[in-house]
Design brief:
- The protein is mainly alpha-helical and 372 residues long.
- Among the domains are: 87 residues; 143 residues, no CATH class.
- Helices cover 63% and strands 3% of the residues.
- A three-stranded mixed beta sheet has the order 1-3-2.
- The protein is globular and about 80 Å long.
Length: 372
Amino acid sequence: MIRPENVIREWVSNEVAGLRRAATMVGEVTGDAATRRRFERMIADTAEQLSAISPALDLDTNWATLAEAREKIDQLKTEALCYIQGMLYRTHRLDQGSGQAVDALIGYLTSAAQVPNGLVTGIAVGPESFTSTINLIRLPFPESSVWELPTVAHEAGHYVTRVLTRPPHDDRHPLMELIGDRKADASEPHLHEFVADAFATYTLGPSYPLTAMVLRIDPTEVNRPSPTHPAWRDRVLTMAQVLRELTLLLRTRTTEARSAGVYAALAEVVVRQWKRLTGDTDPEVEIAYVLAPHLAACLIDHAPHARYHPGPHLAALEGRLAGDDWTVPESITPAHVLHAAWMWRLRHPDDLKGREAVHRRARALLTQGGTP
């Protein structure tokens, strides 16, 4: 006869065994020792939490401890499964190489922001998302097109928010401090979204706002916020204002004053597309004027090398993506490739056949400098 106090021990034993099996499977599909160790650390932390379950405590207390631990366990299992799915999807080349393009973009973003690349990716049904448990970016199933890739920069922005430090004080995190300072302007979850939007716009220029407007936003619900996300109207117009603020900031810096106007021009590209898609005749929101100056200043001060520089070669790059034999300089970045791809798509909105070819060439350029 199994005693009541022994039942919870069986549950604990079963949960720990399941986590260890999940860690083993992660280890079998990944060649990345850091990822494997990260899962192992999380499992060790969870097992330590379960060790608080003791025969000396009453059953109600033990079951409450187990219920709390299981929330974390379920999250770990979900992320392990997402990661395993993503690795198998790549291994069998079902993603058609898009995973490599994602890796190249993440590597570029973290290197430019001068933060360690502690991100991993997985695949699941639904939109992109980020979870800080193991710093996982969930990518949508099936693979993303090149025009969807800018959303990866938004999810990476959630990670950068947490890890970007303020040298020489490595214990200070300027983006997290900004969120703490602006809680009177918006809720904390909404501020995290505004910061991630600003990071994606700062690093990729108009590519991220265009992706959001064309491929992620329901134009009939642009004014509807949720508990976790601001309304899209507030978000997109704040992105545009961040670009304008870059122009204002750079005009005060003599070395870049002459080229500063390019960001205001990019902002107008965003606003013009917003008006066209939504019919918005008065594209202004107060939150944009409140937050954008602080977002732009924080990023330009603490992630100076991550700022997108359009440069003079976008037209040549767009031509190369279209299949023309144009020479593209070696200095192009993933941000340039994504911007050029969007330039092409805006000029050829109905060319579905050409779109597939541009997607393949852009993905090749993104993938470790491949030649289209």
